[in-house]
Amino acid sequence: MSDASRIPTYYPPEEPEYSVYRPRSYYINWCPWNGRDPEVHVTGCIYLRRADNRYVAFLGKYYDCKPAVEYAKQVLPNADGCAFCCPLCDTDIHTYHMV
Predict the structure, then answer these.
(1) Whole-structure pTM value
(2) Is there a contact between 89 and 81 (Cβ–Cβ < 8 Å)?
């Protein structure tokens, strides 16, 4: 018997992407020429990946989007949460959702 077969195969359970016990990384995206308000995003948001990296800044790690948006509003008063990754902190009225 080889030594490799004696090693138990143990794979730790996969951690969920979102957990209330771990803080998440929040970023702010602002583009001066697109006419939209600055938005707070979470790592992995599709709209953060589409953003121009010159206009993305790290806000910090928070357990909720509310303190991240409050921190962003200290610098950019019209900042709000992304409608897709931070819907609880989104204050924009999205007319394209209405029929």
Answers:
(1) 0.71
(2) yes
> What are the counts of helices (DSSP H) followed by strands (DSSP E) for the chain?
2, 4
Residue that is written with structure tokens 């990946």 in the block: 49
- Going from the C-alpha of 61 to that of each of 19, 23, 25, 49, 84, the distances in angstroms are 13, 5, 4, 18, 18
Tens of pLDDT, residue by residue over 50-92, are 877 788 899 999 999 999 999 999 989 999 999 999 989 998 7
CB 60, CB 33: distance < 8 Å: no
Q: Two tokens at 63?
A: 């357990």
Comparing C-alpha atoms, which of 68, 92, 34 is closest to residue 57? 68
Which whole-number Å values give the CA distances from 31 to 34, 48, 91, in the listed order? 6, 12, 18
